[in-house]
Amino acid sequence: MSSDPYSLPEGLPVPADDGACDHLLGRMLPQLTLESSEGPVSMRALSMDRLVLYVYPRAGRPDQPAGPEWDAIPGARGCTPQSCAFRDHAAELEELGASLAGLSAQPLEEQLEFAERNHIAYPVIADPERKLGAALGLPTFEFDGMTLYRRLALVVEACAVAKVFYPVFPPDENAAEVVAWLRLR
């Protein structure tokens, strides 16, 4: 399979809905401040009105291919295409009254590099201790000694989860799905 983090190779395994996010609808985002590409962010403050928060396992780098083991995990591949699609739909989301943020368990240094390389102008949040995951019960998986978030997207209104997109596949179409859902509200 391809090592280009900007494209999705054919034949990726499709994740199944295992019910791991069924409990999230209506849950309040916690009083939690995390580091991001734009400095510390309060999850509550971000979600006071309408927030689209997409959660991804880890962003790839062109110089560090993840390998075939990564591509074999259902739903793992596609963090960069998902993030770039949200970046490209950011103006539409703003017109729909939504702020935007991405989050993974990667450390801040990796999130900073990723946001800069991909010209992402909204917070890319680092949650290496998986504090948000612990507070909300977000699903994870293990890879190469790391515990990573499974891919999902949340629409949060007045600090409460109003919509859950899970599982997300293909990841590069997630932003368009969120925009379409918000247009119907």
Key descriptive features of the protein:
globular, 7 helices, Glutaredoxin, 185 residues, single chain, two-stranded antiparallel ribbon, alpha/beta, 5-stranded mixed β-sheet
Describe this structure in words.
- With 185 residues, the chain is an alpha/beta fold.
- It has one domain (33-183): Glutaredoxin, CATH 3.40.30.10.
- The protein is 27% helix and 21% strand.
- The protein has helices spanning 43-46, 68-71, 79-88, 90-95, 108-117, 131-136, 174-183, and strands spanning 33-34, 41-42, 50-55, 99-104, 124-126, 140-143, 146-149, 152-157, 160-165.
- The strands form three sheets. A five-stranded mixed sheet has the order 5-4-3-8-9. Strands 1-2 form a two-stranded antiparallel ribbon.
- α5 (108-117) links the parallel β4 (99-104) and β5 (124-126).
- The chain is globular and about 40 Å long.
